[in-house]
């Protein structure tokens, strides 16, 4: 078996350094020179292995967000349609999404996208894909749930989960997290009942 690609190693080293820089100095303060210094490289290395600033920011976004989306898919893998909704809620409100330094990077990039149409489009594409994945999970678990409704539910779940993650560092009682998770399940259960499926659904006799 051959050695791992040096280019892949260098690229990972640069993106790790970029994440540390953005977490500490913000997006605007993370120049290629500063990222190069954090990585222990020259600016020419940054351009050689990753590209210009736009390409670096795009690669950084993928670097920090992809593991979260992959983990969401893995949390649902191998489960029946009925098992996926509870598993999805457990994942969205569980320790897997506990706050860490990556959140500072993600928030800096989202904030930066307010003034960068190109970056905003890229971030939107990522979250829209997550929204579609969650909506598909909802439709598979709730037969009869239409696409528009499943997208609204998916968006609500994502907002609840990410809002909770944002406030997690504050000293709210642990019951807040439990209550929000229960509220998410109640929301899904009420929609399932409306479509005659899932817990609490009424039969026709």
UniProtKB/TrEMBL annotation:
InterPro entries: Homeodomain-like_sf, HTH-type_TetR-like_transc_reg, HTH_TetR. Keywords: DNA-binding. It holds the Pfam family TetR_N. Residues 8-68 form the HTH tetR-type domain. The keyword Magnesium does not apply. Residues 31-50 bind DNA. Signal peptide: none annotated. The keyword Signal does not apply. This is TetR/AcrR family transcriptional regulator. It comes from Actinomadura fibrosa.
């Amino acid at each position: 078996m051959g050695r791992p690609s040096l280019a892949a190693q260098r690229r990972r080293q640069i993106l790790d350094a970029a994440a540390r820089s953005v977490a500490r100095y913000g997006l605007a303060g993370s120049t290629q020179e500063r990222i190069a210094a954090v990585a222990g490289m020259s600016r020419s290395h940054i351009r050689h292995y990753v590209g210009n600033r736009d390409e670096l920011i795009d690669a950084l976004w993928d670097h920090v967000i992809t593991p979260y989306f992959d983990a969401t898919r893995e949390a649902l893998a191998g489960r029946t349609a009925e098992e996926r909704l509870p598993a999805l809620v457990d994942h969205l409100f569980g320790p897997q999404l506990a706050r860490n330094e990556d959140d500072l990077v993600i928030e800096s990039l989202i904030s930066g996208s307010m003034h960068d149409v190109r970056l905003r489009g890229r971030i939107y594409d990522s979250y829209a894909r997550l929204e579609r994945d969650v909506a598909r999970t909802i439709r598979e678990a709730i037969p009869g749930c239409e696409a528009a409704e499943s997208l609204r539910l998916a968006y609500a779940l994502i907002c609840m989960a990410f809002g909770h993650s944002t406030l997690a560092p504050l000293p709210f009682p642990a019951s807040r997290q439990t209550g929000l998770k229960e509220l998410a399940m109640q929301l899904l259960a009420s929609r399932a009942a409306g479509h005659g499926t899932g817990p609490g659904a009424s039969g026709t006799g």
